[in-house]
Structure formats: structure tokens, C-alpha cells
Write a structure and sequence with these properties.
The protein is mainly α. It contains 5 helices and no strands. It has a domain at about 35-85. The chain has helices at about 20-25, 35-60, 65-90, 105-110, 115-125. It starts with 17 loop residues before the first helix and ends in a 13-residue tail after the last helix.
Length: about 140
Amino acid sequence: MIFRARSPGPDGPDGVDAVVARGLRSLDPEEGSPNYWMRFRAEVVRRAGPELARRRLMRQATVPEIMSGWARTLVPAAVLAAALAGLFLARGPVRSPGGTLDLEELLLAEVEGPTIPVFLQAASGDAGTPFFAGEGF
């Protein structure tokens, strides 16, 4: 990639300022080595060869082969998760000192004023009739 000013004016036909083009020319690796980009491409292709060959072989892999590859890591992880869950269940329920709290009690703790169920009962007119409220965002 060589930056050259093609006109004597401040901007060349390609829109690159002549001063900027001179500054960028010093950064161009092909300035000091004429075949830089061809050698660069050849080196990238050479280094990518083993990975491309591996991917070419993976194209021939079947679903059972891939699943067996996953099983090597997933089965031990699932066994460990099941063992931990068994330990937690074997210990029994965790007892809190003040008893258990329902979700609604947790959400309404330290809330001042009327709550949403009070407004919903007043809006429906009948406590037994379900009332649905929704908002659009």
C-alpha cells in the first residue's frame, strides 16, 4: 500500500493531502521492502495450513463423534453437580430463626402505604374477579 500525492495541490485526486501522504509513506512496510505484502500473505497462509487441515478433517466428523467429545467434559460436570445437589438435600431444610417468609412478605417489607393488591381489588369491584393490569413501554 503506497501513498503518493498525485497532484501538486493540497489534496490529491484520491483526497489524501500531500503532507499526510508523505507521513503515511514512512509507515508503509513496502517502502523499505518491495515484496513485503506478497511475503506477508505467503507467511499467513503457511501458518494457517495446520489449522485449515484440522478443520477440513472436522468436516467429516459425525454427530456421535462430536457428542462423545462433549461427553468427556459434560458427564463429570453433571456428576459433580448431582453430588453437590445431593449433599445440599441430605442436610435437610435450612431453618431461619424467625420462621419462613413468603415472597410477597419479602417484597412488601418496610413498604409504607397501600400496596398493589389493594388497588387491584378496588379497581375490579369484586374481590373474587381476577383483574389484569399491564403497561406498555
